Amino acid sequence: MKKIIALMLTWMALVGLAHAAGGGAAWDKAPNRLNDNAALQNGAKLFANYCLNCHSAGYMRYNRLTDIGLTPKQIQANLNFITPKVGDLMKVTANPADSAQWFGAAPPDLSVIARSRAGAGGSGADYLYTFLRGFYRDPARPTGWNNHAFVNTAMPNVLWQMQASMNQADFDNSMGDLVAYLQWMGEPSQTTRKQVGVWVLLFLAGFVLIAWRLNAAYWRHIK
Ligand code: HEC
Questions:
Q1: Domain of 157?
Q2: Domain count of the chain?
Q3: How confident is the model at residue 11, as a pLDDT?
Q4: Which CATH number characterizes residue 74's domain?
């Protein structure tokens, strides 16, 4: 009996170890800035300046950015370089087929990227935060860049000039804003949805109370 228990314990320890090893390195934890409009606005600016020339965000309309506190005028003047109307979708400037040929892989649409990349290392936001800060020089790659979070990625480090002009803390901070924006874009209603959820629960709680008192009042004179 003791032998069997010892065997089982060893087995469980081994499975645990294998699991820990198979998960790979954990991703760095992205800061949570979903309720921080200044951070989201900065993220939107970085996104429009550095990402939209290769990636699209085909489910996102420019005028939805009013939800993070921007006016249509600000959007048109600072963020929308491509289309003349603020009601337009965030389209890409490069032709996707050309990009696929230039880079060897098509840049994916980034509308819901933060939701699609959750994994063993953490949330989708953690992955993006690690990926964007994970580029390093690699002469063996066609772009001259490789990445710790996505080995042999076809994406070059498009932020290297910005990165070189800042210290690490400032760059991390900017990437935190950019990731928050990508996360918000994946589900622009998530903040409202959570707030509405709280009100719905409060309403239900209040309603249960009323129903209970009403029930008591109704049956009081019926014996
Ligand atoms: C010069 C073109 C180019 C620009 C600019 C660019 N990317 Fe990319 N990106 C790519 C390509 C190409 C891929 C596909 C990589 C692959 O599949 O190997 C990619 C892939 C990605 C992925 C998916 C990674 C994965 O796990 O599949 C993310 C996320 C991403 N880019 C984010 C960004 C962000 C954020 C910006 C702006 C800071 C940006 N990219 C700017 C070309 C670009």
A1: 27-188
A2: 1
A3: 63
A4: 1.10.760.10
- The protein residue whose alpha carbon is closest to atom 40 in ligand 1 is 51
Q: Which of 42, 55, 79 to mutate to test the pocket of ligand 1 (most atoms within 8 A of CB)?
A: 55
Q: Check whether 24 has a pLDDT greater than 70.
A: no
Convert the pLDDT of each residue in 77-122 to its tens digit: 878 776 667 778 887 766 777 777 788 888 999 988 998 898 888 9
Burial class (CB in 10 A: 0-12, 13-18, 19+), 74: middle
pTM: 0.79
- Number of helices (H), then strands (E), belonging to the chain: the values are 9, 4
152, 148, 142, 56: which is closest to 103 by C-alpha?
A: 142
- Does ligand 1 come within 6 angstroms of the Cβ of 159? yes
